[in-house]
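hey all, quick one before standup. I had two proteins in the batch that finished overnight and I want to keep them in one place so we stop losing track of which output belongs to which input. First protein below, input sequence then structure tokens straight from the run.
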Amino acid sequence: MSSDPMKDALRYLKYRLRSRREIEVQLFKKGYSEKEIKEVIEKLEEQGLVNDGIFARLYVSDGLNVHYKGPFRLRQELLGLGISEEVIDDTIKLELDSCDLKEIGKRAAGNTELTDPDKIRRKLYRRGFSSSIIDEIIEEIKEKS
């Protein structure tokens, strides 16, 4: 085991951005004390390497535009990663103002030749879309058929 918590934290950050809590949990699993973990997190925040606001913004942006996830699912995932509700709400609101959620929902629905509304509804619910967006998408698909 490495005896430097900063090196372990930086190694963990090497692959992708992480939330503060993710790093705390990882360092705790490695056997570091709460005091060591707190010091490392503070140093990383001072250096700008850990910032839950930036992490949340990038996570939501990727979730919407790359993985086609809805806002409800993204909210739950970010809560699980230790991001505060206030940061999540602000981030999702900001991102939704700059994107077309209906278009993202259509992409999430996938093959539009799929005409079974129940299958589409279930798929979009799992992806975290609201029933109003799902209804609009299903109506549009019905009109095309």
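OK second protein, same deal, sequence then tokens:
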Amino acid sequence: MNNRTRKPARQAPARADAELSLDEQVLVELRRIIRAAQLSAKGLARAAGLTTSQLVLLDLLKSHAAMTPGQIARAMNLTQATVTILLDRLQEQGMIQRERDQHDRRTVQVRLTAAGHKRLARTPQSLQQRFLEAFSRLEPWEKTFLLSALQRVTHLMNTAELDAAPLLEVGSIDRPAEAADRDV
């Protein structure tokens, strides 16, 4: 049998959730979240050449006429250095432009370009955007419950002290989109 007619190896079917212990079910759900973030990042990279953080940054600029890198860093809860790397990559692609403020030459204003608007218009919705839309429809008590449960998970995993931005992003936030495509 040559390579063209070879059938793909059969994968063992995943066990039904009922067959898994409670511990295993929790790990499966955590893995699903991680995998969904990976697949979303890969899909964004393929469809638009953007990472989730680049898309969030472009969306942020879309809702503001102009912002300084410091304002972007605060809004995204990222370091100024990380935002600078993201802006460099987006500027290389022609998605944003940086201009010195006419009133204060020390200040740089960042704006979305026409190409950035076009890219946003044809970019599929990210996992983060879909999650936030669904989350916004929950009752306040459900939101608080989910937050408490997730905070407890981070404590159980000894990860509560890790620095994290409010982004559903896997890997380094400032990596190029091509790396997101390879990461999965």
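Flagging for whoever picks this up: The first helix runs from residue 22 to 48. The beta strands are 96-100, 108-112.
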